[in-house]
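Sorry to interrupt, but I need a hand with the structure work. Can you supply me with one protein entry, sequence and fold together? No commentary is needed, just the two lines. Leave the record below and I will have a look.
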Amino acid sequence: MTGENRFIQPLKAEDSVLLIIDYQPQMLLGVESHDRTLIRNNVTALAKGAKLMSIPTVLTSIGQDGFSGKFFPELLEIFPDIKLIDRTKIPSFDALDDSAVLDAVKKTGRRQLLVTGLWTSMCFAHSALHGLREGFQVYGVMDTAGSESLDAHNIAVNRMIQAGVVPVTWMQVVAEWLHDWAHPRGGDVAKLYGEYNAFFDKAGSYYASLKK
């Protein structure tokens, strides 16, 4: 029955919350699975899409005053009113082990939890699985993440999928939040796509213009 298959249910902006985990210099330096610049590009685009669509967002780092370094400043600039939760007392691979992070997610009242983080095999996967145990519908944004090897990334993605995490990409997520180009934010999303994806430099502006 269609109503029983949550995997085909669309993401809804009004029911989504985004958790962004450990985007810090040393964590990115350890990524060998994907191009590091592309990862940074993609997570910034995802964050900007969340901002455009008014998606509650939780930002967390792990010991940013120590080895891992400061959380990416471009992400903090997108969300100037959001306080970064630095996991220092409980520096777990599972971000949701920290009560401040879990409480921040739960307080949104949203049930569709989108997760991304560094590394895929560590904090991302551990947190996504915890989200499932908490009863959330968990979606893993896979093209904004990376891991210590391509095998490590792919196996972590497969493990998450087997557990029930729905794999998505940043453009797909923003498109589902938008639903169609007639949305009031259609023009803004077209500009976002044009900035972070070459195809949409022209195509996105065209599609957005159709509603006028």
In short: The two ends are 38 Å apart (CA to CA). The CA atoms of residues 24 and 71 lie 5 Å apart.
